[in-house]
Design brief:
By secondary structure, the protein is mainly alpha-helical. The chain has helices spanning 3-21, 27-48, 59-84, 88-96, 98-106. Helix 2 runs antiparallel to helix 3.
């Protein structure tokens, strides 16, 4: 599955969520949700790495929460991209893969 396919599926789920809860989605909303999810990922990271209380979770449960929160952050990044009409595959390729040529010529 390609990132654009994943983005479209997540966008559809986000739209369904917004319809159920009467939320007006916009790029600003998506960015704020992304920030919220990043905070939750940070909290999960602190817990999973022993830098915060264990919240009554086992190590495996902490890892599951951490993975779920990472999924939320990635998902909201894709929703944000969809809201702004940004192709996530192109954005990543343009930003990151340009350095493959630089690093291969530096070796």
């Amino acid at each position: 599955m390609h990132l654009n396919d994943i983005a479209h599926r997540i966008e559809n789920l986000s739209a369904q969520y917004a319809e159920i809860y009467g939320i007006h989605r916009s790029a600003e909303w998506a960015l704020l949700k992304l920030t919220e999810e990043l905070g939750e990922l940070t909290q999960a990271h602190l817990t999973a790495t022993g830098q915060s209380r264990d919240r009554g979770l086992t190590h495996d449960e902490q890892q599951q929460v951490l993975a779920a929160e990472l999924g939320d952050v990635l998902g909201m990044c894709l929703v944000y991209a969809e809201q702004l009409g940004i192709n996530p595959e192109t954005a990543i390729a343009d930003k990151w893969f340009q350095y493959e040529e630089i690093s291969s010529t530096a070796e």
